[in-house]
Amino acid sequence: MNLLGENIWINGVIIIVGSAVLVFIGGVFGMLYRGIDRKLVAHMQGRVGPPIVQPFRDVQKLLMKESIIPDGAVSWLFTAAPFICLITSALLLLYIPLFGLQALLGGFGDALLIVYLLILPSLAFAVGGFASSSPYATVGAQREMVVLMSYEFPLAVAIVSLGWRIGHVTTQLTPPANPFMFSTIAEYPIWSLVGPLGIIGSLILVFTLLVVTSGKGAKVPFDVAEAETELAGGILVEYSGRNLCLFYLADIIKAFAMSSLVVALFIPYNLSPLVGIGTPVLAGIVDGLFFLVKVFAVMFISMSVIRTAMARFKISQVSWVYIIAMTLISLVGLILIAVDLMV
Amino acid sequence: MTLEETKKATYTIPVGPIHPALKEPIRLALSVDGEEIVDVDIFAGQVHRGIEWLGMNRNNPIQSIYLAERICGICNICHPFAFVMAVEHAAGITPPARAEYIRTITAEMERIHSHLLWAGIAAHEIGFDTIFYLAWRVREEIMDLIEYVTGNRITKAMFQIGGVRRDITEEQFPRIRQSLDYYKSLFGQLKRVFLDDRTIRMRTKNVGVLKREDALKLLTVGPTARASGVPKDVRQDQPYAAYADLDIKAMTPDMVSGTVVGDVYDRIIVRLLEVKQAIEIIEQCLEKMPPGPILAQPKTAVLLKTLTQAEGEGIGRAEAPRGEVIHYVRLEAGQSTLATWKVRAPTYVNLMAVPTILKGMQIADVPIAFASIDPCMSCTNRIVVTDRAVGRKSVVGYEELHRLSVEKTKELPR
């Protein structure tokens, strides 16, 4: 099977150039959003906060700094981990629809692939922590693994329930071949498929995903792996300079991708058909801007607000929240959607 | 081949001397099994500054007041307070009544600011930065008031042997009352934020428990002891300055929650109650403050002469925001410096409770549980012996100190 179609060279070049452009744009907007997030949180806490361009300056500064590798570290693993983390985070951007367009590699992967891809940056993160031989980083890496295992289940429940419901589209004679494809999800938005019970269930799933997003982004109350006051930065404690910069960028891109995922799954609407803009270029611009607004809304709720309003959990409490509370809540959502289908 | 007994692998996590959880240098060596703390060892001695030595060798007693103020940046009232009481005790000087009231007012202002500062730090330790900023913004009001009354935010230089250096006049009362009213209006909100917030409760309830028996056995002082249900307060038990005229009662957490657990949550309750109590004390002081002079001996030269001629020893005890602080002073006739000066800060005794508090907790509990005794290292540091010839450094431990003391005592009767 030739995945790249007939014009293998042209398609290959398009994919390579497109990936580079996408990752660049995703990174820039990710950093911009991180700056906005920091500013908003600062204002909510009664501070002035850093300028919105601060993340760009941070990256610039980190790139100029020396990368120190501790004596006891597994040097090659310690250096490789940030690269793996950044690359796998960037990979997410290629499979998730961005700016109201189809995902670049949307034809090759679906929402279930994303669930697996999301594990990789966290694994790279933990590997880097274990490789740095610091007791703080070791504890941080252990915690990262526990958190990873904790939020996996509610995340899976949320995505699988959505796909399962879309797979039961009744308006057509033949249900969609792969309900987990983002194009299918965009074609049949969950909100127009279900009745009142299903809407409540879907809202519950959205809530679950928002809480998982907060954990994915390693923000308070789920930032146990870094936990400044406990572990002095945890996993990142030994990282500096370029290596730290790569982790920083990976974190920013991961947060952007995760928010885009929530948007793609639950708010796959475009503005241009609604307001009736016909010209493709203008429609693209409007949809792109609308996408940014949607991502901003998700980020604001899942990261800025939650981290302003809460204290950091203990690792046992994080596990409890995800494995027990969030899983039960997401299962309730699933049951509501299932009941809605039967009624 | 023999089968060795399998043992749970523990490893050591050093917290400090430099660590984000600590505001001052101290080293806690935590033996942890996974996330659980099995054992704790404490190494103090990173901020020894030889202040007592300066007081005994370089400064005259009046200069030493300002040195005492600099023992700790936060307790810059209670240290000079205890110090001047010790010197007055040794030299037989009685400060005028008005000075006693002014001293009390400044000491209570310090308590408000110290407890609010602690509240902010405690919130930061559990990762709740919003409350940290809130608490410190609220604290600014008392800092402004302290500056208005004493002329400086910290190191206020209010104290003088035999009185105080600045008066609090009638014209200043409205401004002081305005600040107190601000805190009274805010108290309900502070209480709601710190005692009812879900995540704060999750992180502080049943964390860092110090039982009443342990608190008594380990001789803890101040809010740490009171939160464990030991109603111990120098202001109540042995009133000094104006406290005897006022209505003081040691605050224990059962006044709010009905029970005493001795955890971090209870320590928050006690400190909140003490902020309220401090406001009431200042109000009472403003009402009852008698007229009169503020210094027993206004002329510094005369005072210095008296102190140089004086002979005797004295003890000053004050209830600092962190607990009881004791200054011991001995004066010898003809000696311009202090013959002996010994400071015992509250953290010195409260540190002994830290291993008990931390054992069995998780690593995540360390910052908040340790911070809950409101440790102040700069007050605490004692002795480090450095042998330059061999490049060896050792801290004189308990056994060694005990042996030396026994030897010294045996020498004395001869």
Features:
heterodimer; A: 343 residues; mainly alpha; 14 helices; 71% helix; B: 414 residues; alpha+beta; 2 domains; 3-stranded antiparallel sheet; 18 helices; 10 strands; 49% helix; 13% strand; globular
SSE blueprint and pairings:
The complex is a heterodimer of chains A (343) and B (414).
Chain A: H1 8-44, H2 54-64, H3 75-95, H4 111-117, H5 119-131, H6 135-166, H7 182-187, H8 190-193, H9 196-216, H10 228-231, H11 241-266, H12 272-275, H13 280-309, H14 315-342
Helix pairs in contact in A: 1-3, 1-11, 1-13, 2-11, 3-4, 3-5, 3-11, 5-6, 6-9, 6-14, 9-11, 9-13, 9-14, 11-13
Chain B: E1 11-15, E2 27-33, E3 36-43, H1 51-57, H2 61-69, H3 78-91, H4 97-125, H5 129-150, E4 159-160, E5 163-164, H6 173-196, H7 198-204, H8 212-217, H9 222-227, H10 234-237, H11 254-257, H12 264-288, H13 300-309, E6 312-320, E7 323-331, E8 340-344, H14 346-350, H15 354-358, H16 366-371, H17 377-380, E9 384-387, E10 392-395, H18 398-411
Antiparallel strand pairs in B: 1-2, 2-3, 4-5, 6-7, 7-8, 9-10
Helix pairs in contact in B: 2-3, 4-5, 4-12, 5-6, 6-12
CATH-defined superfamily of the largest domain in chain B: Cytochrome-c3 Hydrogenase, chain B
Summed over residues and divided by their number, the pLDDT of chain A gives a mean of: 83
Structure summary, number of beta strands of chain B: 10
Number of strands of chain A: 0
Q: What value does the average pLDDT of chain B take?
A: 84
Report the principal-axis shape of chain A.
globular
What oligomeric state best describes the polypeptide chains here? Answer: heterodimer
CATH topology title of the largest domain in chain B: Cytochrome-c3 Hydrogenase, chain B
**β-strand amount of chain A:** under 5%
**Class inferred from helices and paired strands of chain B:** alpha+beta
What is the number of independent domains of chain B?
2
Describe the biggest sheet of chain A? none
Based on CA atoms alone, the radius of gyration of chain B comes out at 22 Å
Per DSSP, the total helix count of chain B is 18
Give the end-to-end Cα distance of chain B, rounded to a whole number of Å: 61 Å
CATH C-level category of the largest domain in chain B: Mainly Alpha
What are the low-pLDDT stretches of chain B, counting only 5+ consecutive residues below 50? none
Tell me the structural class of chain A. mainly alpha
